[in-house]
Design brief:
By secondary structure, this protein is an all-alpha fold. The chain contains two helices and no strands. It has helices at 5-22, 38-63.
C-alpha cells in the first residue's frame, strides 16, 4: 500500500464535496435547463467515486497485510 491510500481518498472526497458545494452559488442562465454548475458537479461526483474506490483498495491492502 502506498502512502495510506484510504487517507488520501478521504481527503479527495472532502475536496470534491467542497467543490460541489461551491457550485450551488453559481447563477443559472435564463432559459437553460442546466447552467455552469453542471460540469463541476459531474467532475466532483467522478472524483468522489474514484476516491471511494481508492479507500476500498487501501483498506483491502491493509487487511491483507500489504
Amino acid at each position: 500500500m502506498r502512502f495510506n491510500d484510504a487517507a488520501v481518498g478521504f481527503v479527495f472526497i472532502l475536496i470534491a464535496a467542497a467543490m460541489i458545494a461551491m457550485t450551488f452559488s453559481f447563477s443559472a442562465f435564463p432559459g437553460q435547463q442546466y447552467g455552469p454548475s453542471l460540469f463541476p458537479r459531474i467532475l466532483g461526483a467522478g472524483i468522489i467515486g474514484c476516491s471511494a474506490l481508492l479507500i476500498v483498495r487501501g483498506l483491502r491492502e491493509r487487511a491483507a497485510g500489504g
